[in-house]
Each structure stands twice: as C-alpha cells, then as structure tokens.
C-alpha cells in the first residue's frame, strides 16, 4: 500500500489544499486546521450550517494565508503575532484563539452575509486529545474535530461507490471526488475495503501512527462541492451498511507517535504504508 493523496485544510470548514508532501508534528500535519471562522460570540461557524464556507479556498504563503472566493476575489491575512487580540471561544478544549486582522474578517463577513471573525490557534493554545477519542496524557491536536489526522482508503471509497450504485441504479462520484466529500488528510490505495477499521498502529514513510478511533460522519459529506447544495448521499447508503451505536462511520482518526521533543518528520505522496499492528475495536491492550 502507498499514499496516493495528502491534503490539508488551512481553515476549518473551507476548501482543501492538496500537497505533494507534508510535515508531521505531534499535533498532526503542519498547517492543517490552524484557522477557524467564529461568530461574534466566539462560537464556531461550521459548513454544516453555512455551506458557503466550502466555496472558499485557503492556501498558505510564507507570512500567512490567502483566501480565495469563487468569484475570484482574494484576501491575504498574516499569521497573528503575540500582540493579537484574543477571543474567548465556545470550542471544545480550547479557551482562547488569536483574532486575525479586522480587514480579513470584514472581507469574509461581507461575502458570508453575516458578521464573523477569522481566528488562529497559536502555538501556546494547547488543545488536548480527549481520552474518549483515543488520546493519552500530553497528546495534543489542532482544530480538527476529534483527532489530528484522518485517513481513508481507496478500497473503502470504491466499495461505498458500489453500494450507492446498487441502491440508486446510477454511478455516484469518481473516487477522487468521493474522497473530497470525506475531507481526509491521507488517502491510501490497496488492501481490502474497511480493513483500516482494525489498524491499530501503522507506519507511513518514517512516521508511526496509532488509531484513536473510527470517524463518525456528519451531513457535511452530503454537500455537493460544486453547487453547495445538500444531497442524500453518501450518508443514506452508508448508514445502511456502516451504522452502529447511533453513528455512521467511515475512515480512521490517527495520532502521530513521537518521542518527546522529537520535532517533526515528513510524509510524501508515494510513501509506503505498513500495518504494524491490528486490533479490532473494543479489544484492549
């Protein structure tokens, strides 16, 4: 097996940025989900309720981000410094974030038709990985929902496509477009469909990862990324095959395993993926 796609999401709920290689830190892929859109009360504005966010593309440049709208308009925003205004948030396990400059937030507010603040998670804004999500003491993450890195496999995407075709009597999305719906960081080829459920420890390139948990899926996967309209798939079909404990599951959340103060490493498209240890869910060490 090998890595076929690496993706970061610089701003949570905005469009993705495919990269040929990525640095891996204990918190996840460097540059992934460090920024978030908040309302004036500090609550996260999610694509679940604001589909327009998925129509923006954020890309990195050396001093910060460039955000592009679908009409071609762009804004550049520098990474907030230590003197930036601090915002209290309603997000889980993070008390405060740093506000971006007012011009960037105003630009985004105008296009969303609602007042918002673009905010950044600085190095000191530590966010623990919850024990219920497979975290261990001292393990931390950025602004992803529950785990630092999400992996899906092409085999599982293909099986889901078959299920949708059988149910709807028509083709769904090609595997590349289907992967975008699930917003993974890492896509892997080879193997059997849903074998990743039982992967407990894997090596990608030179980096070892531990399974935190499977990923429960929400309605964001049903948003057509071209029209930004809600559809029925893939959740309707996926729930027929992959629903238990009240949730629908697809993909696995991984936690990088680093020695203390080991710095970062790098993974690259084409890197081999080796399963080091399997353990069915619910089986303890």
From TrEMBL:
Q: Which PROSITE patterns does this entry report, sorted A to Z?
A: MOSC
Q: Where is the MOSC domain?
A: 110-276
Lineage: superkingdom: Bacteria
Which InterPro entries does this UniProt record tie to the protein? MoCF_Sase_C, MOCOS_middle, Pyrv_Knase-like_insert_dom_sf
- Span list, region Disordered: 1-23
Output the Gene Ontology terms for molecular function: catalytic activity; molybdenum ion binding; pyridoxal phosphate binding
Q: Which PANTHER family match?
A: MITOCHONDRIAL AMIDOXIME REDUCING COMPONENT 1, MOLYBDOPTERIN COFACTOR SULFURASE MOSC
List the protein's name. Answer: MOSC domain-containing protein
């Amino acid at each position: 097996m090998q890595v076929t796609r690496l993706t970061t999401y610089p701003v949570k709920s905005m469009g993705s940025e495919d990269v040929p290689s990525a640095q891996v830190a204990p918190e996840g892929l460097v540059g992934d989900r460090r920024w978030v859109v908040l309302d004036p009360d500090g609550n996260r504005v999610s694509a679940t309720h604001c589909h327009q966010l998925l129509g923006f593309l954020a890309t990195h440049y050396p001093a910060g981000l460039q955000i592009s709208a679908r009409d071609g308009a762009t804004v550049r925003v520098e990474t907030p410094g230590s003197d930036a205004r601090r915002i209290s948030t309603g997000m889980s396990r993070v008390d405060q974030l740093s506000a971006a400059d007012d011009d960037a937030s105003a630009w985004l507010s105008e296009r969303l038709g609602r007042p918002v603040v673009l905010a950044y998670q600085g190095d000191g804004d530590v966010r623990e990985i919850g024990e219920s999500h497979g975290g261990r003491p001292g393990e931390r993450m950025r602004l992803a929902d529950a785990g630092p890195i999400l992996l899906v496999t092409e085999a599982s995407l293909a099986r889901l496509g078959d299920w949708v075709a059988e149910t709807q009597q028509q083709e769904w999305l090609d595997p590349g477009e289907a992967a975008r719906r699930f917003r993974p960081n890492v896509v892997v080829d080879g193997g059997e469909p849903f074998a990743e459920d039982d992967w407990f420890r894997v090596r990608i390139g030179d980096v070892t990862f531990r399974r935190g948990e499977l990923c429960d899926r929400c309605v964001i996967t049903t948003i057509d990324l071209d029209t930004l309209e809600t559809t029925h798939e893939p959740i309707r079909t996926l729930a027929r095959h992959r629903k238990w404990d009240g949730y629908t599951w697809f993909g696995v959340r991984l936690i990088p395993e680093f020695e203390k103060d080991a710095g970062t490493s790098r993974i690259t498209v084409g890197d081999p993926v080796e399963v080091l240890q399997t353990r069915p869910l619910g089986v303890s060490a």
